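Batch manifest line 263
LIGAND: S-adenosylmethionine
JOB: complex structure
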Amino acid sequence: MALPFTENDVYCTAFNPKAFLDAYFSDKVGALVNDDYLDFVLKQLVKTFTAGVVEGETLIDIGTGPTIYQLLSACEVFKEIIATDYSALSRQEFEKWLKNEPQGFDWGPIVRYVCELEGQRDKCTEKEEKLRQTVKDVIKCDVTRSQPLDSLLPNSADCLLTSLCLENACKDQATYRNAIRNISSLLKAGGHLVMMGVLEETFYLVDDYRFSCLFYDAGFVRNAVRDAGYVIQDFQVLPRPENSTHLISDYKGYFFLVARKET
Ligand SMILES: C[S@@+](CC[C@H](N)C(=O)[O-])C[C@H]1O[C@@H](n2cnc3c(N)ncnc32)[C@H](O)[C@@H]1O
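JOB STATUS: finished
ARTIFACT:
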């Protein structure tokens, strides 16, 4: 039976960003590291941001959470990145890394891997510094609102990126479809949406707290993106590996999508 929807405000109280990072992104033991999600999306992100098609002035990351992996290649081809999230706890954890505070999560192994993929294995310190310089703001966002950002940005973005957020923020498929339209209001026509998400999941655990996830398949997400006025340019799926036996989430796969906003 599906878990009752985890209301957005629960992310401001019960979502422990440090525990999330430790459980899912720790070197060699994190669930998203071991299940190849990271390897899969980092390679897709390198491919997307080095092809010379998805680039520009401003990228907005929707539901950044406490993570930076999704921005490591983008910072090479965008002049500014705006990080956003609903929860102050997630924004604070992200800012610990941004300000290079000693208690911040160690992204070193993941940064090194991206540098290797980009053929710049000696440039890890420069890469983290470049990302820090490129992130110009960290602001509140609510994808369920027709105007998702509290602060109005002077110009529309050239790219929207979002990873593992909408399926947690949306209580049903109609809300998910609306959320794509809501965030798309921040993107200029001709701009790109780069989205990573989880397929056929009902829950994931952080610190023993069970968070709900909107259950959907690849067909649903493709239709929702097309119906919001996009042409899909790339869509890749990573099925759950057979040797993935952990019980901290019940997902069946991950997807990576690139789409161009037509209208
Ligand atoms: C599972 S985390 C994913 C974080 C990160 N993007 C990643 O790839 O790991 C989900 C994030 O979505 C945020 N979130 C939940 N509801 C939201 C909403 N209505 N609008 C924006 N962000 C929301 C949470 O605060 C949390 O940081």
